[in-house]
Amino acid sequence: MAGFKVRALSAVVLVAILGTALFFGGYYLWALMLLSSLVGFFEFLRAMREPSERDNMKPDILEAVGYAGVAALYVILLVVKPGNDLIVVFYALVLLLIALMIVYVLQFPRFPTSKMMQVFFGVIYVGIMLSFVYLTRMADEGLKLVWLIFIASWICDTCAYLTGMLFGKHKLTPRLSPKKSVEGAIGGVAGAAAVGFLYGVIISLGDAAWVSAVICAAGAVISQFGDLTASAIKRNHDIKDYGKLIPGHGGILDRFDSVIITAPIVFILAQVFI
């Protein structure tokens, strides 16, 4: 019971902080997403290390370049004009890769090739993909659109859990996550679509509520792969949680594993349909 109370209280605090930042947007959300991305990047790099090295908080030079890349990404998003941000982000990614290659060569043979690839992947996986929460909020109709990310991810997760508990019989990924079922996955998508439809009706999003339902359904499908990807990484590296920042939930990557992959999808589909 005590564990449930801690988890519930943490969830309330998290929703309050995130909800306030999403509502006001601007510098508030920018700062929260920057901090979340840096912490999430730290959690990812820590998971990639050997167990004996995970207590070492000091980043090596390749990791330091990665942290600088995440910070630079958010500075770019803050200063460039809307519409040009994705192009500039692409250029920044190319420059980041070049910087990592230079360090890799100058430090050779200190780092294996896989280390350079891990850092580059981590910047994309955590920094860039999570930044789409900010990009969605700052887009046209962003105050309405950004909530679709969390309907597609967190509502899907809740509905999938409840449906799986009640009706789950067929394992979705038995070797990766034995508790997840096909019925739960379908229930999660259906629940997200239904809530998305109701949300679209309430706020008059786009020409019809079906737009919101379609975006949430597509996002819900993708969100489950984000959840499972994070689980697969943890299993491969023999860790239970990415961190302990959020009591009862784990780290940033534990709580935002589905949001990370859902945010870009919702952003893209919103550009197409709305």
Q: How would you describe what is shown here?
A:
It is a single chain. The chain has 274 residues and is mainly α. It has one domain. It is built from ten helices and two strands. It has helices spanning 2-24, 26-48, 61-79, 85-106, 113-138, 142-167, 182-203, 209-236, 252-255, 257-273, and strands spanning 171-173, 177-181. Helix 3 (61-79) runs antiparallel to helix 4 and helix 7 runs antiparallel to helix 8 (209-236). The N and C termini lie far apart (44 Å).
Helices, strands, pairings?
Layout: H1 2-24, H2 26-48, H3 61-79, H4 85-106, H5 113-138, H6 142-167, E1 171-173, E2 177-181, H7 182-203, H8 209-236, H9 252-255, H10 257-273
Antiparallel strand pairs: 1-2
Offer a concise description of the structure.
The chain is mostly helical.
Strand order in the largest sheet: 1-2
* DSSP helix fraction: over 70%
Count of individual beta strands: 2
**Treating each run of at least 4 consecutive H or I residues as one helix, how many helices?**
10
Low-confidence stretches: none
Name the shape in a single word. Answer: globular
Task: Please give the oligomerization state of what you see.
Answer: single chain
Query: What is the number of domains?
Result: 1
Order of helices and strands: HHHHHHEEHHHH
How would you classify the helix and strand content by structural class? mainly alpha
The average pLDDT value, as a whole number, equals 91
| Biggest beta-sheet profile | 2 strands, antiparallel
Radius of gyration computed on alpha carbons = 19 Å
| Intertermini distance | 44 Å
Strand content: under 5%
